[in-house]
Specification:
116 residues; mainly beta; 4-stranded antiparallel beta sheet; 0% helix
Length: 116
């Protein structure tokens, strides 16, 4: 099975930036959709941003204009650039990949904390 490993989380002040990375264990892959989700304590896991094999991109309303999802096929890696971070962005962020018939996979998560 494919393994997804997230990195790049940490503690930042409000208004700061972080870039999350999600690296796949497969050498090369073609996905149907890749996305970033987040879950804060006591809240449901929510979709933050996603990209599809058809080139579509969508974002949660709460992060539009601040976050950018992108990928590097040569490195089998998907990124989430997070700018103008707010305390309400604090959560564990999870990478998810959908390969259709080949299955779907979750990373183990990386903590993002935005605090003064």
């Amino acid at each position: 099975q494919v393994q997804l490993v997230e990195s790049g989380g940490g503690l930042v002040q409000p208004g700061g930036s972080l870039r999350l990375s999600c690296a796949a264990s497969a050498s090369f892959f073609e996905f149907q959709a890749m996305g970033w989700y987040r879950q804060a304590p006591g809240k449901q896991r929510e979709l933050v941003a996603a990209i599809t094999s058809g080139g579509g991109i969508n974002y949660a309303d709460s992060v539009k204009g601040r976050f950018t999802i992108s990928g590097d096929n040569a490195k089998n890696t998907v990124y989430l650039q997070m700018n103008s971070l707010k305390p309400e962005d604090t959560a564990v962020y999870y990478c998810h990949g959908d390969w259709g018939e080949d299955g779907n996979y979750w990373g183990q998560g990386t903590q993002v904390t935005v605090s003064s």
